[in-house]
Design goal:
- The chain is of the alpha/beta class.
- The chain has a single domain, classed as Hypothetical protein PA1492 (Rossmann fold, 3-Layer(aba) Sandwich).
- About 40% of the residues lie in helices and about 20% in strands.
- It has 5 helices and 5 strands, in the order E-H-E-H-E-H-H-E-H-E.
- It has a 5-stranded parallel beta sheet, with helices on both faces.
- Strand 4 (about 100-105), helix 5 (about 115-125) and strand 5 form a beta-alpha-beta unit.
- Helix 4 packs parallel to helix 5 (about 115-125).
- The radius of gyration is 14 Å and the shape is globular.
- The model is unreliable at about 1-20 (pLDDT under 50).
Length: about 130
């Protein structure tokens, strides 16, 4: 069973008294999930920018971050699909290799099929899940 921390998490804010996300995972690889797929390309672009900005902040705080949206969104111009089904295999590989999953709670996170599958996979693999407010 994974450790699910439901409190808002930020590299500079405590998760538990005396602990910060960077204290727990500094130098370790974390998987940063967020909702992405949406029929409106402007929403996908906004989500890409938001998760990429947060990935950069986490990296500046000392974490090693993989953000599948940051990685894949620019490749859409070369024919990559939007739907999570295409990314399922790579998501599994990166989540398996990660120390924890960090979920950025952008608008639509609760309805996101892909993010839901990523969270379920992290739980099955016993990965801690940390939550970042938008």
């Amino acid at each position: 069973m994974s450790t699910i921390i439901q409190k808002p998490v930020d590299p500079m804010h405590a998760i538990e008294p005396g602990w910060k996300i960077r204290d727990l995972y500094e130098g370790q690889f974390v998987y940063l999930g967020a909702p992405y797929t949406h029929p409106d390309p402007a929403v996908r672009e906004a989500r890409f920018r938001a998760v990429t900005e947060r990935a950069a902040r986490l990296m500046l705080a000392g974490l090693v971050v993989f953000s599948p949206i940051t990685h894949s969104h620019p490749m859409r111009q070369y024919g990559l699909p939007v739907e999570f089904e295409f990314y399922r295999r790579s998501a599994r590989a990166f989540i398996e290799a990660s120390a924890a999953m960090v979920v950025l709670k952008l608008s639509g996170w609760q309805e996101s099929v892909g993010l839901g599958e990523e969270r379920q996979l992290a739980e099955e693999l016993g990965k801690p899940i940390l939550w970042l407010e938008e």
